[in-house]
Design brief:
Layout (H helix, E strand, L loop, with lengths): L1 E3 L21 E5 L4 H17 L5 E7 L4 H11 L6 E10 L1 H7 L5 E4 L3 E4 L3 E3 L4 H26 L3 H7 L4 E4 H7 L4 E3 L21
Parallel strand pairs: 2-3, 3-4, 4-5, 4-6, 5-9
Antiparallel strand pairs: 1-7, 6-8
């Protein structure tokens, strides 16, 4: 059995959490959520907590999703840490990456022209009939866990989430704000919107 999120492009993974600002509390989740991307993110989260447990961490996301278990691992670490983790969507946050964005424990934000999407997990199984029945039950359990996570992060009714998650559910930054996936939109410089362009307002996640 292999469980994964649906992928719609051929983007190549890049190294996360490195670069000129590697000494700052910034982490970059760019590329598919495979081991070579997710593991450095988890390691850097834990390192930042050990170094300065009181200081927030910024997690920048530009990902089409990938391995669902890796998305779960990143979310689990964020919610077991003392520092708040601000999640920021820069380009797109699809599938498991969207769940990571929504599960941020600090300020959750998205660039004005970014694209977000969530859906139920693509579940693959093989074997005899008994094993297929076991895997089908596990797939159902995982979908219910997805619904529960999104319910806690967005405050949306579980019945609505159960319906929306059945197919690819795309949102603009404004739609994601209204849905409860993010707390703030980062507006493009020069936008005439009367909303604050740089100041982010912390909103407590639904418990």
């Amino acid at each position: 059995m292999k469980k994964k999120y649906q992928i719609e492009d051929d983007e190549q993974p890049v190294v996360s959490g490195t670069g000129k600002d590697s000494g700052q509390r910034n982490i970059y989740l760019f590329g598919r959520l495979e081991n070579e991307i997710a593991l450095p993110v988890v390691k850097r989260l834990l390192k930042f907590e050990k170094d300065l447990p009181e200081e927030p961490i910024n997690l920048y996301i530009n990902s089409a999703g990938g391995n669902g278990y890796n998305a779960d691992a990143i979310i689990a670490v964020m919610h077991s840490m003392q520092p708040r983790v601000n999640t920021v969507c820069l380009g797109h946050a699809l599938s498991g990456a969207c769940e990571i964005l929504a599960a941020g424990t600090g300020i959750r934000s998205a660039y004005e022209f970014s694209t977000l999407m969530f859906h139920q997990t693509l579940w693959e199984a093989d074997g005899d009939i008994t094993n297929l029945e076991i895997q089908a039950a596990q797939g159902q359990r995982f979908r219910e866990a997805q619904i529960e996570l999104l319910h806690r992060c967005t405050g949306q009714d579980k019945g609505k989430l159960r319906k929306d998650i059945e197919r690819d559910y795309y949102l603009s930054a404004k739609e994601a704000l209204d849905y409860g996936i993010i707390d703030e939109i980062i507006y493009h410089r020069g936008t005439t919107s009367s909303a604050s362009k740089n100041k982010l307002t912390i909103t407590t996640l639904a418990s």
